[in-house]
Specification:
The protein has about 425 residues and is mainly alpha-helical. Helix content is about 80%, strand content about 0%. The protein has helices at about 1-10, 15-30, 35-45, 50-65, 65-75, 80-100, 100-130, 135-165, 165-185, 200-205, 210-225, 230-240, 245-275, 280-290, 310-340, 345-375, 380-405. α2 runs antiparallel to α9, α4 (about 50-65) packs parallel to α7 (about 100-130) and α11 (about 210-225) packs antiparallel against α15.
């Protein structure tokens, strides 16, 4: 923690405030969202397809609107979008706890998703602008606070939901209300150099940026891989556990391993990588680790439930996956700014999130279907081998871009 505090104090006030904001944002989000599906299905008695529709609407409204949110941030300034996103999420979370009709729940879910699309690109563009040539260090610090919120949020939510889910929603809404007020009063204004240009100008520049699009395509698989800590790995852990209780405890341990490793190791790992490799090499190594993480579940794929040893390969898989993600994240965020040529940065972040979000949706659908189909077909190792291959292809793609100097900045023009 000493290293984190020292790094935190070395940055100016905006980066410090945005790191604390992201920590609090994640606490508010993750204290509620892991328990929303159970509330909708068990608490309100909604059918499974309705639960899926409400949760899917939230995800679509966020991933589908990232480009718009980023463009608005470039046009009107980063602070207004950050404030608007937090204010909108305040209302959305309050509604989730106070309404019980499907139309109202859909409105609330869409509002919480669109809120993320508003403030997410703006926050990253603000951090990049304020940190200057210390962007990699700033994003490494940002990820420490980000992961800390993910680790702490569900624990707070578990305690509150034990009393009432409505209490969880109202507390989460209160958290975002406090953030809204805090940012109005304390966050300095920061405008993009492209504020005088239209939204369409930013879209044209981002969509014509071939280096950026190639990098985005190469990185899609990394998001599919990182999301398996929420999908394939918990499913496999629960399958192999001797009981539901054991499975729940083991999944909790996996999340703990992921969060603690990211929090404790991020700054040191980033510093170590920067001293030895350029950005492209760091990304290639990190993506390779993410792919290798799924070699461990190959050992358990054919194992029957109830064998204690099977948890160890899964724990190793989560550790390697987290390590790869820790290596990748700060260099990934900095590379986006570099490829944008420091123009329409929030728009590029928004488009990047949209592209990777579509990849996550398709990848999760394919992974979930493959896990069931492969097991019923007697070849349970195939999905894990496929995830290893995805990591290898991502690493190879970034390696080719790095070797051909296509991760370097280009001249950006606006027409």
């Amino acid at each position: 923690m000493t290293d984190v505090l020292r790094q935190f104090r070395s940055f100016d006030r905006p980066v410090q405030l945005l790191a604390l904001n992201q920590f609090t944002i994640n606490i508010g989000f993750y204290m509620l969202m892991p328990y929303l599906a159970a509330h909708l299905s068990l608490g309100l008695g909604l059918a499974g397809w309705m639960v899926g529709l409400i949760l899917g609407a939230r995800n679509f409204s966020q991933q589908g609107m990232f480009l718009l949110g980023g463009s608005l941030a470039d046009r009107f300034g980063y602070k207004p979008l950050i404030v608007a996103g937090c204010a909108l999420r305040t209302g959305g979370f309050a509604m989730l706890g106070l309404v019980d009709s499907v139309p109202a729940l859909l409105v609330a879910s869409v509002a919480t998703g669109f809120a993320g699309a508003l403030f997410n690109p703006a926050v990253r563009a603000y951090v990049a602008a304020d940190a200057g040539d210390r962007r990699v260090e700033a994003f490494a610090l940002f990820n420490v606070f980000y992961q800390s919120g993910i680790l702490l949020g569900p624990l707070i939510g578990l305690a509150l939901t034990g009393v009432a889910f409505q209490l969880t929603c109202l507390v989460a809404a209160a958290v975002f209300l406090v953030l809204t007020v805090l940012q109005i009063r304390s966050l300095p204004e920061r405008r993009s150099r492209d504020a005088h240009d239209s939204l369409l100008a930013g879209w044209r520049v981002a969509l014509a940026n071939r280096r950026f699009l190639a990098f985005s395509a190469a990185m899609i698989g990394s998001y599919v891989l990182s999301f398996q800590v929420y999908l394939a790995l918990p499913l496999e852990t629960r399958r192999l556990a001797g009981s539901e209780t054991v499975g729940t405890v083991e999944v909790g341990i996996l999340f703990g391993i992921s969060g603690i490793l990211a929090i404790v190791g991020q700054l040191r790992i980033t510093a170590w990588c920067r001293q030895r490799w350029n950005h492209g090499r760091c990304l290639t190594v990190g993506l390779s680790l993410m792919g290798l993480a799924f070699t461990a579940p190959l050992l358990t794929a054919a194992s029957p439930p109830g064998q204690v040893w099977t948890f160890l390969p899964l724990a190793l898989s989560v550790a390697l996956l987290t390590l790869g993600t820790v290596v990748v994240f700060p260099f990934e965020m900095d590379t986006i700014v570099t490829l944008a040529g420091d123009r329409f940065v929030a728009t590029h972040y928004g488009l990047y999130n949209t592209i990777c979000g579509i990849g996550i949706a398709v990848g999760n659908l394919a992974t979930g279907a493959a896990l069931d189909l492969a097991r019923s077909s007697g070849i349970p190792w195939v999905p894990w081998a496929a995830l290893v291959a995805v990591g290898g292809m991502c690493a190879a793609g970034v390696h080719v871009l790095n070797r051909s100097d296509r991760l370097e900045p280009r001249a950006v023009t606006v027409s």
